């Protein structure tokens, strides 16, 4: 039996599921005040605890889910967004919930 599994290549720019999965995510965590101040105010949730969720997705997400998306504050995005790894359990859960394929792409 082979121990080599085919690498799974999920393309975040053709997905966006984790940015549209949970109205309570992404939440801010260990960001500095300067990092938080750099995020446009209109994209931040009223309670200042995380990003604003609007229309079923993070307010910073542009494009069409499952086709072509982008984070409009990529360089400024919260730490939890940076920790997301394509193919990890949270990714798989978000993709399944949004009906985005479990295969490549
Ligand atoms: S759910 Fe996974 S593949 Fe989709 S954008 Fe998030 S990390 Fe990338
Ligand atoms: S800040 Fe960017 S990476 Fe994070 S959830 Fe919003 S759109 Fe996605």
Count of the separate structural domains: 1
Low-confidence stretches: none
Q: What is the helix content? A: 10-25%
Shape: globular
Strand order of the largest sheet: 1-2
Q: Report, as a whole number of angstroms, the end-to-end distance.
A: 27 Å
Q: How many extended strands?
A: 4
Count every helix, treating DSSP H or I runs of 4 or more residues as helices. 3
Estimate the strand proportion: 5-15%
Radius of gyration: 15 Å
What small molecules does the structure contain? iron/sulfur cluster
Give the integer mean of the pLDDT values: 91
Given helix and strand content, the structural type is: alpha+beta
Order of helices and strands: HEEEEHH
Largest sheet: 2 strands, antiparallel
Structure at a glance:
This protein has 105 residues and is α+β, with helices and mostly antiparallel strands.
Characterization of this structure:
The chain is α+β, with helices and mostly antiparallel strands. The chain is built from 3 helices and 4 strands. The protein has helices spanning 33-38, 79-83, 89-97, and strands at 53-54, 57-58, 61-64, 68-71. The protein has a two-stranded antiparallel sheet. A hairpin with a 2-residue loop joins β1 (53-54) and β2 (57-58). The longest helix is centred in the C-terminal third of the chain and has 9 residues, at 89-97. It starts with 32 loop residues before the first helix and ends in an 8-residue tail after the last helix. The mean pLDDT is 91. Bound molecules: iron/sulfur cluster (2 copies). One iron/sulfur cluster (SF4) binds at residues 19, 26, 51, 58, 60-61, 71, 73, 77-78, 81.
């Amino acid at each position: 039996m082979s121990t080599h599994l085919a690498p799974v290549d999920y393309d975040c720019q053709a997905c966006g599921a984790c940015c549209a999965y949970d109205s309570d995510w992404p939440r801010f965590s260990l960001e500095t005040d300067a990092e938080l101040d750099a995020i446009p105010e209109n994209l931040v949730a009223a309670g200042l605890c995380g990003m604003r969720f609007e229309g079923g997705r993070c307010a910073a997400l542009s494009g069409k889910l499952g086709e072509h998306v982008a984070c409009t504050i990529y360089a400024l995005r919260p730490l939890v967004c940076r920790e997301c790894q394509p193919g990890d359990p949270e990714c798989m859960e978000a993709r399944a919930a949004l009906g985005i394929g479990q295969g490549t792409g």
